[in-house]
Amino acid sequence: MTTITRISPAELSSLLAAADKPYLLDVRTPVEHQEINLPMARLVPLDTLDCQQIITEAGVDRECVVICRSGARATKAAEKLAAAGMKNVRVLEGGMLAWDAAGQTVTRGQKAMSLERQVRIAAGAMVFTGVLLAHFVNPAFIWFAGFVGAGLMFAGITDTCAMGMLIARAPWNRVRSSCKCAH
């Protein structure tokens, strides 16, 4: 397995000032990208990542810096790109949160509710509904709440979230055609 290296916001800022700029790949959702982004980054959400297309666009030897909100999705994307043959892949340490906190240049758009917050609301509503149904309708509905809890544990252990992937596709999380998405 290839070890993926990280790059700090300060290091990336220095690289972007040089003549030989790295290829910037943003793997967040279109809504996250619309809210705040690096102007020169190419948006390709993780669930639509086509490694061969990125290698063709960027070149197999060009440095590629992968960006997400905090670093987890970028690491997954970087591992896929390295496995597909890209030779110089790095992850922005701390993601857009760290980049923005460091005072680096960003483009800001319309503010949106974070996907993580939406998942917490949905999971909480499902658990609460299961408990109410178990109390007022049938005690067997407690298993619904237990199922959601088990799903949250699985998401935490595996660092994947099926509910998050579903919510990301919801109509309110779609961006109008002004977004520079790769679809």
How is the topology of this model organized?
Layout: E1 5-7, H1 9-17, E2 23-26, H2 30-35, E3 36-37, E4 42-43, H3 51-58, E5 64-67, H4 72-83, E6 89-92, H5 95-101, E7 107-108, H6 115-136, H7 142-158, H8 162-168
Parallel strand pairs: 1-6, 2-4, 2-5, 5-6
Antiparallel strand pairs: 3-7
Q: What does this 3D model show about the protein?
A:
- This protein is α/β, with parallel strands linked by helices and 183 residues long.
- It is 48% helix and 11% strand.
- It has helices spanning 9-17, 30-35, 51-58, 72-83, 95-101, 115-136, 142-158, 162-168; strands at 5-7, 23-26, 36-37, 42-43, 64-67, 89-92, 107-108.
- The strands form two sheets. Strands 1-6-5-2-4 form a five-stranded parallel sheet. A two-stranded antiparallel ribbon has the order 3-7.
- Helix 4 (72-83) links the parallel strand 5 and strand 6 (89-92).
- Helix 6 packs antiparallel against helix 7 and helix 6 (115-136) crosses helix 8 (162-168).
- The longest helix has 22 residues, at 115-136.
- It starts with a strand and ends in a 15-residue tail after the last helix.
- Mean pLDDT is 91; it is low at 177-183.
Mean pLDDT: 91
- What is the number of E strands? 7
State Rg. Answer: 19 Å
Q: How would the global form be characterised?
A: elongated
Short description:
The protein is α/β, with parallel strands linked by helices and 183 residues long. 48% of the residues lie in helices and 11% in strands. It is built from eight helices and seven strands; from the N terminus they run E-H-E-H-E-E-H-E-H-E-H-E-H-H-H.
